[in-house]
Amino acid sequence: MTERVQSGKVLLFFDEISWMGSKDPTFLGKIQNSWDQRLKNNDNLVFVVCGSASSWIEKNLLSSTGFVGRISYTLTLEELPLSDCSRFWPSGISAYEKFKLLSVTGGIPKYLEEINPKLSAEDNIKRLCFTHGGFLVDEFEQIFSDVFLRDSEFYKKIAETLCSGRKAIGEIERVLSGDQSGRISEYLWELGLAGFIARDYTWNLKSGDDAKISQFRLKDNYVRFYLKYIKANLGKIARHSYALKSLTSLPEWNTIMGLQFENLVLNSRTQLHRLIHVNPEEIVNENPFYQRQTVRQAGCQIDYMIHMKYGTLYVCEIKFSKNEIGDSIIPEVQAKIDALSRPKGMSCRPALIHVNGVSQDVVDSDYFAAIVDMSDLLLSKCSSSLRRLCPDG
Q1: How many Å apart are CA 61 and CA 64, to the nearest integer?
Q2: Pick from 353, 365, 384, 199: which is nearest to 273 by CA?
Q3: Are strands 45-49 and 10-14 parallel, antiparallel or unpaired?
Q4: pLDDT digits over 331-343, tens only?
Q5: Whole-angstrom Cα distance, residue 319 to residue 55?
Q6: All domains of the chain in start order, with CATH
Q7: What proportion of the chain, given as a percentage, has pLDDT over 90?
Q8: Nearby residues of 70 by Cβ (< 8 Å), 6 or more positions away
Q9: Structure pTM?
Q10: Among residues 208, 5, 231, which one has the least CA distance to residue 136?
Q11: In Å, how far are 19, 179, 217, 233, 262 from 145, measured between CA atoms?
Q12: Contacts 24+ apart (CB under 8 A), 82-88
């Protein structure tokens, strides 16, 4: 092979390198020798290795001393931006309907390809998730066996503990009752590399530096939907005896949709900054923010907060609703702001992120510094329905 690639423009591509390498302990050494002795002599050769087992690649290639100085670029494939996701539907489909499906699929291209745009969101979800042979019925077991080279059951247990919301590592350990507790950090790290979970750090509002306190969030929308709704009904689905009345009839549907929509927002934070008119160069820190309750301070959790350089906090409330959001949202957000323990002189500007409209009372209140319609992010060029109510950045 090496004789064929020593001159001319060549793209050499090794797919699923983790599976090749896991079968032969001398495999990586052979690659290193081939590169050093032959391949690197061709300046027009690009050698790409990829695989679904992210942790194997990190340990054996990216963090290996044997490959120091030999790696020019690393790329982790993220979910598609919302504007690209929107292109899987024809014009005329409402943002609310698109977001219902995205709450199940996330921005995974293959899942979006399986959507039949002639069907409603509910009919698509029934077909893909609750019908025998549906693409997303068996996908979970397939991806976990592909991504993790060792027994995947414990990874699944961790994902299940995060279904209902964020948890600190101590909470995860308590739920799992010490099972594999000595290795939970490693499992969490691998789940993060694979893109299934995210670790959200809170931060010090005085310095802007990340705190040691963090919570883990299930960021893969399909995984949460599968564990919450599909898994429990696999037997009925296999017998063709499961009938989904409506999505809203599913247990805790509104809560789960809120968590799924929050993932879509957090995955789109770069575009969101543009809609709020935040200058990225002036951001000190940004993330979901939570404050522990102590004797001196109340506890609170903020969906998303942006800490600006000149002493301003954007406190963002994320709401997914099929109806317009009414003014009852205002005292709800204000209670969180009041609970924040922040330095003297630091300003708070509330922002509301929604998908299906807000009432005129909310607009007339002049309470929110920004009201962001997430449907704008489904457009190739964000427009219009952002109402900028405060000129300060």
Answers
A1: 5
A2: 353
A3: parallel
A4: 999 999 999 999 9
A5: 34
A6: 2-67 (no CATH), 82-262 (no CATH), 268-388 (3.40.1350.10)
A7: 56
A8: 32, 35, 40
A9: 0.86
A10: 231
A11: 12, 20, 21, 21, 27
A12: 82/107, 82/264, 82/268, 82/271, 82/374, 82/377, 82/378, 83/271, 83/377, 83/378, 83/379, 83/380, 85/112, 85/378, 86/378, 86/379, 86/380, 88/112, 88/113, 88/115, 88/117
Instruction: Write out the two tokens for 238.
Output: 């296999």
Q: Does residue 34 surpass a pLDDT of 70? A: yes
* C-alpha to C-alpha distance for 349 and 371, rounded to whole angstroms: 11
Q: Is the dihedral of CA 243, 244, 249, 250 positive or negative?
A: positive
Residue 38, pLDDT score = 81
Compute, in degrees rounded to 10, the torsion defined by CA atoms 98, 104, 108, 114.
-70
Task: Judge whether 317 and 337 are in contact, CB under 8 Å.
Answer: no
Instruction: Kindly tell me if the per-residue pLDDT of 274 is higher than 80.
Output: yes
**Buried b / exposed e across 73-101, counting CB within 10 Å, b at 16+?**
eeeeeebbbbbebbebbeeebebbebbbb
Q: Are 129 and 137 in contact (CB under 8 A)?
A: yes
First and final C-alpha spacing in the chain = 58
Residue tagged 């951001």 (tokens)? 283
For Cα atoms 117, 119, 123, give the angle at the middle one, nearest 5 degrees.
130
Residue type, 313: L
Residue 255 has pLDDT above 80, yes or no: yes
Does residue 127 register a pLDDT over 90?
Answer: yes
